[in-house]
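Before a colleague's protein record goes any further, I have to sign it off. My question to you is simply how this chain folds and whether the tokens agree. I do not need a full report, just your reasoning and any doubts. This is what I was given:
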Amino acid sequence: MVVEIIGNMLAKLKKQLQQSSEIYLRIKVRPNSAKTEIKEILEDETIKVDVSAVAEKNKANVELIKFLAKEFKVEQGNVAIISGAKERVKLVKITTN
């Protein structure tokens, strides 16, 4: 059930990205996890992401950017942390160009 909800939400976000060429995501990161993956989508549409990298020297942010770029099929340079770089909750912008 959770996997289906996440899949549906991701499909919706990917479609929005294709249509508007940019989207903004609110991401709650849990660093130092076993693997990098989306864990759940909260009621306010915040996306909880487990990140395998540690939260030191920007490693978790770099891992998050790599993961989102791969998930949304864009270059890493098209994924930017707009705010919250040193916080668990971040605002991320993804563009297609």
